[in-house]
Amino acid sequence: MLIPVSSAFSCWLVLKLFFFFLFRRVLPEKQSLFAAKVGKAAAGIFFSDEMIENKITDPKNLQKIMPVVEEHIDDFLRNKLKKQMPVVGMFIGDKTIHSMKTVFMTELESLFPQVMKNFASNLKDDLNIEGLVTEKIRSVSITALKEAFYKNLSGDLRILSIYSASVGFLVGSITAAIIFFIK
């Protein structure tokens, strides 16, 4: 009975030592390397330059902002232009405002995709997703990481400990049976 119990204890202890060394030695020593690799992966996989550009230049996004732009143009033609240029404002009626607004909106619909593409290109250069993710991971304290890990996975770790001890007990029992039958 000693072999199965000691084998179960050994497997349980190995699991505990694994997490002890993970949070005391491995992660503190490799945090910067890990952060750089995750940052590179995040920039390449999750936030690729192409994905950012496609999202910003998506015609659906343009259609979402066009009503706001049209509202501002209407306000400009009806109110601000008349205040800034009262003489011109006297000669502009609803029909002229509607015509000018249509011309402006048509021009903006052809101009916005290129403007947004240029914006996306500049944003990609300025944003530096890889650097941001890398720095965020480097700045997380190992203690906070350990606490979050144990808090969020405590039930799973308990089950893993039970499985580990059970496997150890099973291996110990098989070993004890082999020893018993060999004698």
The gross shape turns out to be: rod-shaped
Overall pLDDT confidence? 88
Uncertain spans = none
Q: What structural class is derived from the secondary structure elements? A: mainly alpha
Helix content: over 70%
Number of helices: 7
Major β-sheet profile: none
- Quaternary state, please? single chain
Number of beta strands:
0
In sequence order, what are the helices and strands, one letter per element?
HHHHHHH
| Residue share in β-strands | under 5%
Domain count, please report it: 2
Distance between the termini: 16 Å
Spatial extent as radius of gyration: 33 Å
Please explain how this structure is put together:
The protein has 183 residues and is mainly alpha-helical. The protein has 2 domains: 1-46 and 141-183, no CATH class; 49-140, no CATH class. Helix content is 94%, strand content 0%. It contains 7 helices and no strands. It has helices at residues 2-46, 49-57, 59-84, 86-91, 94-127, 129-139, 142-182. Helix 1 runs antiparallel to helix 6 (129-139), helix 2 (49-57) packs antiparallel against helix 5 (94-127) and helix 3 packs across helix 5. The radius of gyration is 33 Å and the shape is rod-shaped.
Give me a quick take on this structure.
With 183 residues, the chain is mainly alpha-helical.
Topology diagram in text:
Elements: H1 2-46, H2 49-57, H3 59-84, H4 86-91, H5 94-127, H6 129-139, H7 142-182
Q: Could you name the key traits of this structure?
A:
94% helix; single chain; rod-shaped; mainly alpha; 183 residues; 7 helices
